[in-house]
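hey so u asked for the seq, here:
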Amino acid sequence: MSFNILVVDDSRAMRAVIKKIVTMSGFKMDKCLEAGNGREALETLADQWVDVIISDINMPEMNGLELLKCLKADDCYREIPVIMISTDGSTERMRESLVSGARGFIKKPFFPEDLRNTLYEVIGVGADGRYPEDTPAADGFDF
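ran it, C-alpha cells below
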C-alpha cells in the first residue's frame, strides 16, 4: 500500500529535502504534494486527498499551527494525521503542537528513520509499511 503525503514548508529547498528523506527512508509513497504555507495546503486539499501531512510551524500567511486548527475544525480534514517538523523543538512548542491535534513532532535536523518511524506510527502501519489486517493468515487464507 502506498500513501499520499502533503509537505508544507515555506522553503522550497526544505520541501525537496523532506521529500528526498521520505523516499530514502523506504516509506511507501504514491504522491508527494507540496505547499508553501497553510493557505496553499488548504487549497491543495480541496483538490487532492492525502493520507498524512508533514508541516513546518513557522511560515508566512498561515503558519503550521493555524493550518492545524483549520484542519481540526473541518469535518473532511480533521482525521488526516499531521506531523509537525520544526527547528524549534522546545517543550512548549511540542506541547502546543500536540495539544492542537498534531499526531507527531519531529525536530530538525532529523534522520530518515525518525521520519519513517513517525509516519508509520501516525498512519498505524507496522515496520514493513503494512496494515496488520493486510498480513495473510498462516494457513494462506485471509478470511
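The first strand starts at residue 3 and ends at 8. Residues 3 and 88 are 27 Å apart (CA to CA).
lmk if thats what u needed
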